[in-house]
């Protein structure tokens, strides 16, 4: 089985394929790249739709391109919330952006609480009082007792007190049917008993148990988690399809099919409107669009790009590579323009070009 989810080998293989193309840490950059740009593509599509949609609603959609565009837009709007959700939840456990998110959550005290397993200077918690604060040690006046020498903790020994530890955890308030028991990692460490039922209502409480006398050392209750930690837990579990069971998985399947259809329709539109000749369809570069902005616009977009590149490193690196290629294309176009091999109309911005195409199309309909 894989982790605490109890899934079987096929699902484990699919999980690793989704996470990193079975390439380990290097492959994780792929999934982080997708999560970093997914929200940009979703919101960018809405911006393009707002800028190019006709002022009056058409009575009937005709033509192959119009049909593909209609369904691409319809699917995009229907899946918009899901696209933003999967982008956000995917970034929370990504390799590079995930570390930055964890640092932010730590600074704001939004991290998921972890149960303390250290036995050094820790006052045990009475197992019968699951939500009480730590109590002091009991003393017995008039009796002189030598401190007991701690017995060494054997890890993964065959005669470990699994039953006693589980009983102590149950008495402390661990009630889920699915629990995970972990032996002490070494001397001076406690057992941990953690609920691992990710289905709604979430059960992820945890306690640590002293291996010497089976008293409760520490406990963590899900209902005491910070709100952001709860939302992160629910978001990740919904992303993985375990929060609401079969309905959750059916929604994910429908979303995946809708996303694939939207991507295919997008490429179909591009193929139908693909450039036929380089002379008639000169390069339209992002750098030329950036130069067409005002000074404040250029400074603002540059600062936004730097901030996003810092927070989402994989996005920053990929954007830098894209810009280098884009600038090379822009310089090549500039040389063609100076040589008189490209018309002046090639300086149009990409959005303006789309709008002009739509205007020509509407005139032809009239």
UniProtKB/TrEMBL annotation:
<feature type="transmembrane region" description="Helical">
    <location>
        <begin position="73"/>
        <end position="96"/>
    </location>
</feature>
<dbReference type="InterPro" id="IPR005625">
    <property type="entry name" value="PepSY-ass_TM"/>
</dbReference>
<dbReference type="Pfam" id="PF03929">
    <property type="entry name" value="PepSY_TM"/>
</dbReference>
<protein>
    <submittedName>
        <fullName>Uncharacterized iron-regulated membrane protein Iron-uptake factor PiuB</fullName>
    </submittedName>
</protein>
<feature type="transmembrane region" description="Helical">
    <location>
        <begin position="305"/>
        <end position="328"/>
    </location>
</feature>
<feature type="transmembrane region" description="Helical">
    <location>
        <begin position="250"/>
        <end position="270"/>
    </location>
</feature>
<feature type="transmembrane region" description="Helical">
    <location>
        <begin position="34"/>
        <end position="52"/>
    </location>
</feature>
<keyword id="KW-0472">Membrane</keyword>
<keyword id="KW-1133">Transmembrane helix</keyword>
<keyword id="KW-0812">Transmembrane</keyword>
<feature type="transmembrane region" description="Helical">
    <location>
        <begin position="282"/>
        <end position="299"/>
    </location>
</feature>
């Amino acid at each position: 089985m894989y982790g605490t989810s109890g899934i079987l080998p096929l699902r484990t293989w699919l999980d690793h394929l989704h996470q990193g193309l079975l390439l380990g840490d290097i492959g994780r950059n792929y999934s982080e790249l997708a999560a970093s740009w997914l929200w940009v593509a979703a919101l960018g599509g809405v911006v393009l739709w707002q800028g190019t949609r006709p002022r009056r609603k058409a009575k009937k959609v005709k033509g192959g391109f119009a049909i593909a565009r209609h369904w691409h837009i319809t699917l995009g709007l229907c899946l918009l919330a899901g696209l933003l959700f999967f982008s956000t939840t995917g970034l929370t456990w990504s390799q590079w952006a995930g570390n930055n998110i964890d640092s932010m959550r730590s600074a704001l005290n939004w991290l998921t609480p972890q149960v303390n397993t250290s036995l050094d200077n820790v006052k045990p918690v009475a197992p019968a009082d699951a939500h009480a604060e730590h109590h002091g040690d009991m003393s017995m006046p008039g009796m002189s007792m030598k401190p007991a020498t701690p017995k060494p903790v054997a890890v993964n020994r065959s005669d470990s007190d699994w039953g006693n530890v589980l009983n102590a955890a149950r008495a402390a308030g661990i009630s889920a049917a699915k629990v995970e028991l972990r032996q002490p990692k070494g001397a001076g460490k406690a057992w941990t008993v953690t609920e691992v039922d990710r289905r709604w209502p979430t059960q992820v409480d945890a306690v640590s148990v002293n291996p010497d006398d089976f008293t409760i050392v520490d406990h963590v209750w899900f209902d005491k988690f910070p709100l952001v930690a709860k939302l992160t837990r629910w978001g990740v579990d919904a992303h993985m399809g375990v929060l609401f069971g079969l309905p959750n998985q059916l929604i994910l399947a429908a979303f995946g099919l809708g996303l694939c259809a939207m991507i295919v329709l997008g490429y179909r539109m591009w193929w139908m409107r693909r450039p036929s000749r380089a002379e008639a369809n000169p390069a339209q570069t992002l750098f030329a669009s950036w130069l067409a902005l005002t000074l404040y616009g250029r400074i603002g977009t540059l600062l936004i790009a730097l901030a996003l590149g810092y927070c989402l490193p994989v996005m920053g690196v990929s954007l830098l590579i894209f810009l280098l290629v884009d600038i090379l294309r822009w310089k090549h176009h500039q040389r063609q323009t100076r040589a008189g091999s490209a018309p002046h109309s090639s300086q149009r911005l990409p959005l303006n070009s789309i709008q002009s195409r739509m205007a020509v199309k509407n005139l032809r309909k009239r």
